[in-house]
Design brief:
27% of the residues lie in helices and 17% in strands. The strands form three sheets. It has a seven-stranded parallel sheet with strand order 5-4-3-2-1-7-6. A five-stranded antiparallel sheet has the order 8-9-10-15-12. A three-stranded antiparallel sheet has the order 11-14-13, with no helix packed on it. It has helices spanning 2-22, 32-41, 69-73, 86-95, 132-142, 177-195, 212-225, 289-301, 320-336, and strands at 43-47, 100-106, 146-152, 199-203, 230-231, 269-273, 305-310, 344-345, 354-359, 362-367, 374-377, 385-390, 397-400, 406-409, 420-426. A hairpin with a 5-residue loop joins strand 13 (397-400) and strand 14 (406-409). It has two domains: 27-339, TIM Barrel; 344-432, Immunoglobulin-like (Sandwich). The protein is of the alpha/beta class. The structure holds ligand FHN. Ligand FHN binds next to loops.
């Protein structure tokens, strides 16, 4: 009987200990103040770059698939992006109206864009021989941009990680995950100590070798190094990128290539490519200005951030056509930025006709097209409109029957063919309005 009791006690304790290892201690989680600051930024630049630009194929995923592994793993010996200009990249992001930059310091192919002491597969052993990460971190300081770093969990190049190619089915028994996790901890300590990133964008957390307790361990280490560093929800072992809960390790959800659902309860950031491929691809199909501007409006309308990706070329330049497109977004934000930065999403769900954001007593209606002369809005839960006008100028006629829907009478021609923003000044704080289903 005593043996059975001891066994039960031991099992119960193991379950509890395991449970403890599989979620983050709430006391070390990133604070709401820090997360609110992140969400106020609303718009950032994602950069996917590495020696794979020499082939114009997808970073990591083309290794051993469209580019033979040995060829891919030796590209770094030719990688010499002499036209890389961190100042120009940071200015491009600034002129686009972006507030932060997130660059792939190490993607799934394992190549490190900084002089890490824990792998020879890094930029200092390429002909370029300069610390890309440090240069971009410094340029971000100059342009008052927050500097963020993408770091892959899986690493198909590292022999201690048990999967050596995207198509691997079996784990390599000669690999050593304990050594791999130690390298990861050492590299992350280097990155935080040298570059002090505002946010760490983890990725590649879905393969079988990775376990939740590794994620808990790493999150706990990072918070010891910098209690305010923000961490994406791709550090635990899962592929639930759009979710956030104590079981999902990280501080914000990361819907990918799609606009996240309106959600006032969890921080989220959509990551999306300006073209089709994450890393540079010759003649890739680029999104129209209409797609770009309506994407940022719908993302903010959903209460989320947009991390918009460019893939620089093999010589270190961002394509001029992408720079132009980003500048056009920045020009739009110069006029309408108050309806994006520092706003909350809602209270209406974004749709193909309009999205809504709000700040203080102002409700911003992003009108994408004039389907009908009258735009009918759900009631504002008792809030009354005091004034209605286009941000670009011009009063708006409207009717608001007490507690009923609102009718906005749109002019025959909207002032902005892509997104005309109307301001509804209310008699109450618009951020307190309940989200309309
Ligand atoms: O596999 C990566 C992919 O290459 C790219 O980095 C995206 C960006 O979020 N993340 C992963 C796919 O979910």
């Amino acid at each position: 009987m005593k043996i059975l009791y001891n066994l039960f006690f031991f099992l119960a304790l193991s379950v509890q200990l395991y449970a403890q290892k599989s979620i983050i201690d709430p006391a070390i989680k990133t604070t709401k103040v820090v997360m609110d600051d992140f969400m106020d930024q609303r718009f950032g630049m994602f950069i996917h770059w590495g020696p794979v630009a020499l082939r114009g194929t997808e970073i990591g995923w083309s290794r051993g698939v469209t580019v033979p592994t040995a060829e891919y793993d030796n590209l770094y010996k030719e990688f010499n992006p002499v036209l890389f200009d961190a100042d120009k990249w940071a200015k491009t992001a600034k002129d686009a109206g972006m507030k932060y930059i997130t660059i792939t310091s190490k993607h799934h192919d394992g190549f490190c864009l900084w002089p890490t002491a824990y792998s020879t597969y890094n930029i200092m052993n390429s002909p370029y021989k300069k610390d890309i990460i440090a240069e971009l971190a410094n340029a971000c300081k100059k342009y008052d941009m927050k500097f963020c770093i993408y770091f892959t969990v899986l690493d198909w190049h590292d022999p201690n990680y048990p999967m050596h190619i995207s198509t691997a089915k079996e784990q390599d028994p000669k690999a050593d995950m304990n050594k791999f996790v130690l390298t990861m901890k050492n590299q992350l300590t280097e990155i935080i100590s040298k570059y002090h990133p505002y946010m760490l964008w983890f990725d590649g957390n879905w393969e079988s070798p990775w376990k939740n307790e590794y994620g808990v361990d790493i999150y706990t280490l990072l918070k010891k190094l910098d209690p305010n560093v923000i961490i994406s929800n791709r550090l635990g072992a899962n592929d639930k990128h759009t979710e956030l809960s104590p079981a999902i390790i990280g501080d914000f959800a990361t819907p990918e290539q799609k606009i996240g659902e309106l959600n006032m309860n969890i921080p989220w950031e959509t990551c999306m490519t300006i073209a089709d491929q994450w890393s540079w691809k010759p003649n890739d199909k680029m999104k129209t200005l209409k797609q770009c501007i309506q994407t940022i409006a719908k993302t903010a309308g959903g209460n989320g951030n947009l991390l918009f990706n460019v893939g620089p070329m093999l010589d270190g330049r961002i394509e001029e056509r992408q720079i132009t497109r980003l500048k056009e977004m920045g020009d739009w934000l110069k006029v309408y930025g108050e309806s994006i930065y520092g706003t909350k999403g809602g209270p209406f769900k974004p749709n193909e006709i309009f999205a809504a954001t709000r700040k203080g007593n102002k409700l911003y209606l992003h009108v994408f097209e004039r389907k009908t002369a009258d735009l009918i809005l759900p009631s504002l839960s008792g809030a009354r409109i005091k004034k209605a006008y286009f941000i670009k100028g011009g009063q708006i006629k409207y009717t608001q029957k007490r507690k009923w829907a609102i009718t906005i009478q749109l002019p025959k021609v909207l002032p902005d063919s892509i997104n005309s923003v109307i301001v509804l000044e209310l008699d109450t704080n618009a951020e307190k309005l309940p989200v309309q289903s």
